[in-house]
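User: I'm putting together notes for a lab meeting next week and I want to include a structural view of one of the chains we've been expressing. I don't have a solved structure, so I'd like a prediction I can at least talk through. The sequence is below, exactly as it appears in our construct file.
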Amino acid sequence: MFPGMGGVGGRGMNPAKMKQMMKQMGIDVKELKDVEEVVIKTADSNIVIENANVTIMTVQGSETYQIVGDVKEVPKSLEIPAEDIKLVMEQTGVSEEEARNALKNSNGDLAEAIVALSSA
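Assistant: Thanks for the context. Below is the predicted structure for the 120-residue chain, given as structure tokens.
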């Protein structure tokens, strides 16, 4: 690909020459040290990358992160605060279990849970 960059037998590149060429092109590559895990949070789950190797490449002022490791997806569980359950119970006169279920079904939306229980 690059003239004069062939390694032994025309395969691969000399790492020192590669680094020099990248520097000339304005590309800086650094490894982020001592990374234990990387967590990417989405609306539905967390993607956890353990034993992560993170490389940061800077090109023309823009940083790109490359992450390699053991990936697992962890679904988010909806945490319903006790105060919300109590409020739904007071407003609708239902049991704690019914209030909790209504809040789970409404993704924690108090008004939606109360309306659903009131119209049932």
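A couple of points you could mention at the meeting. The longest helix spans residues 82-92. The mean pLDDT is 88.

User: Perfect, that's what I needed.
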